Amino acid sequence: MVKAVPNTLRVFASLFVALTLVFILAPLVVVAGVSVSESQFIAFPPSGFSLRWFAAIFDSNAYVQALITSLKLATLVTVTATIVGAGAAIALHRRRLPGTSLLAGLFLSPLILPSIIFAIGLLMLWSATIGPVSFWALWIGHMVIALPYVIRTTLAVLADSDPFLEEAARTMGASRWQRILYVVLPQCVPGLAAGAFFAFNISFDEAVVALFLRTPDLVTLPIQIYNQLEFSPDPTVAAVSTLMMGLTVFLIATLDRFLGIQRFVGT
Amino acid sequence: MRDRVEDLALAGPGILLLALAFVLPIAEMLGLSILGTHRELTLEHFIRFLSDPYYLGIVWRTIYLSLLITAICAAIGFPLAYVMARIRPALRLWLIVLIILPLMTSVVVRTFGWMVLLGRGGLIPFTLWKLGFVGRNFTLMHTEAAIVIGMVQVLLPFTTLSILGVVMKIDRRLEEASRTMGAGFFATLRIVILPLAMPGILAGSLLAFTLSVSSFVTPSLLGGVRLPVVAASIYDAATKTLEWNFAAAQSVILLVGVLLALTPYIKLSGRRHG
Amino acid sequence: MATLELNQIVKSFGSVDVLHGISLSIESGQFVSLLGPSGCGKTTLLRIIAGLEAVTRGTLRIAGRDVTDVAPENRDIAMMFQSYALLPHMSVRENVRFPLRMRNRGTRKEQDERVQATLETVQLGHLADRMPRQLSGGQQQRVALARAIVSDPKILLLDEPLSNLDARLREDMQVELIELHRRLGLTTVFVTHDQEEALSLSDTVVLMNAGRIEQVGGPQEIYASPRTGFTSEFIGSANLIPVRVEETAAGPRATLPWGEVIAVAPGSKPSHKASLVLRQEDMKLLPSQTIIPNGFRATVETRVFLGARIRYVLRLGDMRIKCLAPGTDIFGPGDAVVVSVPDSRAQIIEA
């Protein structure tokens, strides 16, 4: 049999993919490695095995506070962004509002416009109109970043649904609210669930808006890590980072388990 | 009419949020950038930034590092995306998940990983020293090389997925047709695949460039204070020296640069999504 | 069950008129087909009857009540969609119960009984707890049908409901639709582009073209006496030949473009600009020496074997016509033939 791709090339391609994966995953593996090291210095490969740095997290008030802040923030952002995003996605999907495509562009623009630009604007606007930045400023900021993800995943599942469901419901006597409640929202559920996963993950991991809007009392987990990295990193940072990675892996696995990740990765 | 009222009510909270927390902040920033100390209109902040060799140096560093990072991402991303598009779907899904995993991990965590790998006694300098490429144990931290390595890892997933989306849509039979017409594997790759993948490569590169010029966490931590980029300069002005108008002016300059890169990106990706 | 009256319905999308003043009166219990090529406005008209599309001008009455401005949910109609539009997150039972639930018909128990009875009617009683995606296309189609009849609507609207089925299922469903209609007597409006389907199912066929009604009549009438060139071409894809018609002592005669004269249907009016309608299956091909009572000469140009029948393309002068013959007549390209046409089948329409 003639092979379309020469064997040497196959070997070379496999090697290339493997090396690229090593490169992409290296920093994650290293952080996980450091977190279980016995040594009190940050070193890779790790020496020995110990979970004491994970225990150390919970002895540190700063980390515990940051963890609580981040969990509170991410949960609130997830709930609100999902609700707001659901409404926006349904309206965009129906294409009945004038300027729908313009509106869609506006809703998705936080995805591509670098967050540093809007973060600094938010800091200035909040300070000028409301006063010192607070948890609520951070909540608003993360909503803006998380919203496009919810809208995008929800629009994707709505695009796959039967376009005549709503009309069919009308001919069967369903009123406006009944159509939203019994027909449209149930169609949105997989997209909203995926969007909620993304929203939580983004809010929990985000470092730029949180950095601009931080105050001594308002430090999220990524910012706490950032602070430690700027000054005196010890393996506790690695342990916290590993926890965060664990959460991400858990979220991806859950997303895949319940919804199938293929639907939301764009290919 | 009532349909519109209903849809407006549905989209209303989102529109309100974006208007107040996205559009207005950017407008506020634009406004502040042209206000002087006594709230008079002035271009002094722009003049200050664009006439100071120190800041121009920062701009230049930001741009050429971003170009370099973007080029490397495209150079790795295209073959990677091509291979991914041509392997078994199950394997492809695994690769996608492995590429998304770092994408969904906090950039702070990933940068920390590079600090460990690149620092004094870190795996990479240590290996280079043991292999005899360098004379002594040294640190790669606080070098432009460190910034490039870290940023390529951050942005490669974006570029790869962007190119993959386009390559997946290329009809495989085009390649087969090309082979039956006498073109070899590499000739086909160059004459058939590359031109067809170009919109994806360009879109992915423009996205990577935008994210690169505006990135803050990775360059700051890996480059250190002696190698500031534009975003770091904005951050310092906004939170350390508290020169908000100056910070706003720098943000406007960054925004203009980003929009210049995004305009063709939107056209490219818009055409792709039809 | 109710009457349906359309009065001068006009529909424009922007500056484009898609319906130019449609007037139609449908009696209670009739099965009416809206037939026409794609883009003729038949689906738009159905959606207007459903209320899913607003009219630009004109009025619409269901059971005597003006419903022109009534929302679809309040029209007491039922519609079956081409894609079936089953709610994917609800079981078969819940889908069929949906119209009763939305309209608050009876108690929960009464609804359940009604749903079960309706599902039995379409032979799906045993699948009531399945989800739509677990059903075959034909079963989904029955669920959609059950859902459309469960609420005993005043008007039943069907939008090409059979077009997603394969040929055999389609024939079965046609029979079932006829029986169901006979049993329930629902006033039914059925959209299709398939003329055979329209002729076999309906009491009345409304043939539409370019936003206008071309002809309304019973299936026999539409088939046998097309009044326009469009009707004759669309129903049975007839040949149209420009002719001059004169009255003679022996009856009306038409002069064909190449000079031959044939007898045409009695009662045809003399005209200088008329068209002779020749249905493909009404012509008979015979060897060229055969003496025939009425017909003309032609040459076989192409032969297409279709199984039970053969389609010939014939050349007459500089015209071509198509002809369907039983599969046993064998003529080859270039053969001279005579084409026999009974004068009653040679219809004349005004050009």
TrEMBL record, chain A:
The protein's name in its UniProt record: ABC transporter permease
Keyword Cell membrane: yes
InterPro entries reported in the protein's UniProt record: MetI-like (IPR000515), MetI-like_sf (IPR035906)
Coiled coil (UniProt feature): none
Location of the ABC transmembrane type-1 domain: 67-256
Transmembrane segments: 12-36, 73-92, 104-130, 136-159, 180-204, 236-255
Protein family per UniProt: Belongs to the binding-protein-dependent transport system permease family.
Compartment(s) where it occurs, according to its Swiss-Prot or TrEMBL record: Cell inner membrane; Cell membrane
Keyword Cell membrane: yes
Lineage: Bacteria, Pseudomonadati, Pseudomonadota, Alphaproteobacteria, Hyphomicrobiales
Gene3D superfamilies associated with the record: MetI-like
Pfam families: BPD_transp_1
Membrane topology: Multi-pass membrane protein
Annotated keywords: Cell inner membrane, Cell membrane, Membrane, Transmembrane, Transmembrane helix, Transport
Main location: membrane
From TrEMBL, chain B:
Chain ranges of the ABC transmembrane type-1 domain: 59-265
PROSITE patterns to which the protein is assigned, alphabetical: ABC_TM1 (PS50928)
Pfam families found in the cross-reference section: BPD_transp_1 (PF00528)
Membrane topology: Multi-pass membrane protein
Residues passing through the membrane, by range: 12-34, 54-81, 93-117, 145-168, 189-211, 246-266
InterPro entries: MetI-like, MetI-like_sf
Cellular location(s): Cell membrane
Keywords for the protein's UniProt record, in alphabetical order: Cell membrane, Membrane, Transmembrane, Transmembrane helix, Transport
PANTHER family found in the cross-reference section: ABC TRANSPORTER PERMEASE PROTEIN (PTHR42929:SF5), INNER MEMBRANE ABC TRANSPORTER PERMEASE PROTEIN YDCU-RELATED-RELATED (PTHR42929)
Family listed: Belongs to the binding-protein-dependent transport system permease family. CysTW subfamily.
Protein name per the record: ABC transporter permease
Automatic annotation (TrEMBL), chain C:
Transport found in the keyword field: yes
UniProt-listed InterPro entries: AAA+_ATPase (IPR003593), ABC_SmlMolc_Importer (IPR050093), ABC_transporter-like_ATP-bd (IPR003439), ABC_transporter-like_CS (IPR017871), Mo/tungstate-bd_C_term_dom (IPR008995), P-loop_NTPase (IPR027417), Transp-assoc_OB_typ2 (IPR013611)
Keywords in alphabetical order: ATP-binding, Nucleotide-binding, Transport
UniProt cross-references to SUPFAM superfamilies, sorted A to Z: MOP-like, P-loop containing nucleoside triphosphate hydrolases
GO molecular function: ATP binding
UniProt cross-references to Pfam families, sorted A to Z: ABC_tran, TOBE_2
Entry keyword annotation includes Nucleotide-binding: yes
Domain ABC transporter: 4-235
Signal peptide: none
Family of the protein in this entry: Belongs to the ABC transporter superfamily.
The name this protein goes by in its record: ABC transporter ATP-binding protein
Protein species of origin: Microvirga terricola
